[in-house]
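Appendix B: complex inputs.
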Amino acid sequence: MEKRSIVAKKEFKLRSFFFQWEWLLVLILVAVNIINASLSPYYLNLRSLIDATMTFLDKAFIVLPMVFVIILGDIDISVASTVALSSVIMAVSYNNLGVPMELAMIICLAVGTVCGLINGLLIVKFKELSAVIVTLSTMIIYRGIAYIILEDQASGKFPSWYKYLGWGYVGGVPFILIVFAVFAVIFGLLLHKTTFGRRVYAMGNNITASRFSGVQVDKIKVIVFTLTGFMSGLTALFLTSRMGSTRPNVATGYELDVIAMVVLGGVSTAGGKGRIIGAILSIFLIGLLRYGLGLKNVPAQALLIIIGLLLIFAVMIPNLKINMGKRRKLHKAEA
Amino acid sequence: MSEIALEKKLGVTSIGKFRELGLLVFIILLSVLVQLRNPNFMTLENINDMIKNTAILSILTVGMMLVIVTRGIDLSIGATLALSGMISALTVSANPDLHPLLAMLLGTLIGTVCGAILGFLISRGGVLPIIATLGMMNVYRGLTFMISGGKWVSAHQMSPSFKGIATGSILGINTLIFIAVVIYIVFYYFINHTRTGRQIYAVGSNPESAKISGINTVKVLWMVYTIMGALAGLAGVLWVSKFASAQGDTAMGYEMDVIAACVLGGVNIAGGSGKISGIILGSLLLGILDNALPLINVSPFWQQAIQGVIILVAVIINALVKRKVDRNNLMRRNI
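Resulting structure:
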């Protein structure tokens, strides 16, 4: 009885507020496509549109678990460094240590997972430190280790079949798109259809109340951060495959891109609100915007500005809608 | 009874101060170790060099401390620094006769505008600081690239008087150090002895009660980000003058160094606390690491990881000390 009432209330809230948000995203996405199509005659071509997804889907893998992290009210800025470290370790174990590529790829995922696990453990062991601080320091450490390993060198020369990950097709659809779709469904189900997901929401809304209602908050936090690490490792696999070689400064700035996508997708940094579908929409929104304007030779710098402004207005619009009382609550939640 | 209470209180405050003391001891130990390995470390020349190199970081750290005290964060300062540095460098290369003081004023002005826009978005628009500054970081960085057209302004385009800002000296002290010292004195007075300065801490420790007690929180927030922008603008001119080159990617990622200096200096990321003496030590520690690691032949590739580990250790010690203080407070309450 009690449980049902909570669910019903949640459902109502989401529908009244976030339903609109995601529709707004769809509208912007359609608008972007129309603008792109009218700007360039080459844009509306299914083949090239599908190919374009390959260019921005690598970091999209991190967006999925980042939704969980931000719903928890935390943040993980170490993801880009985790990508760099797992990629570098994979390359070195294949090229310098003679590990078979299959094993090196597993090592890559394992390194990412361990990085995430360390983040999670540090965050729950030292509750006085916020996730920002912990991941800020591990961000520096992970990339620092990558620099220790590879110095200023690049490492490439992977077996030719490894290229398939980033460039291959399965029945005309890019392999990376299929993998992303699978993970998107898994994460969507995990967040919206399992008790684990409900608990993540509960923790984001009120972590103390969740703890007192018997949610193992520490365990869930560690799992979420470990998942983020794992997906960073996965990103490293695809990114390295696309680039063909790796360097310690690979994926610089990815963390900010990923956070921007999550927030644009309607996930509140105050915690407790947001859905996977919004984040997925914003991945395609930003990706296609970049691709389309790139076709039109709009300089990358102008794109930076457009995406920055888009991010701010995306966050400001719902703020204007929420009444003052709710806004105050948001500020309180932020604290 | 009162004696006991007094004693307890003294005990607590001395533990509260321990962190800074610990940082100081750490710095001294580090210096002694480095000195043993390389006797050139403690020469007047090297110390002067080191402080000169830390000056810009420490100027930014003051502003960042104010921002963090109000529970915010500013990720845009690297971009603001680059933008103001670029505009003033372009102005100087167009008008070689421009007085350096005017160039500094121009840079500060640009930074102030950048900061005021951020302050508006955060205080009036209700955008979370991390999102607003992330978005504007993109915008300012994009503007820097667009204004410069992707080109550098290099040493030969700058007038000797402009380059002289960083190399010249006032009263026998290097200008950079002189400016940093003046800023520290001004802000020490401002945050400790003026009403507005104290209001910053009030807003940071409890926004709700600050508002109820009649503090204009919107004004305070707006002011804090404007100050941060102004300091970043000034730092931009100093940076360009020091390195005699303005580039589109100047100071990319520098915000993380500044935040790290704050965190090392004991500024609580959750807001409400932070001291000038702490951030001096925090910036100094980062400066010493930068300077000393090459002196004792640590490979440059190891430096980042070492810095990261030291930051992590420092914040963990901070957390443990805080735990002890809290426990002592609880024990005092029991009596």
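Residues 2-39 of chain A form the longest helix (38 residues).
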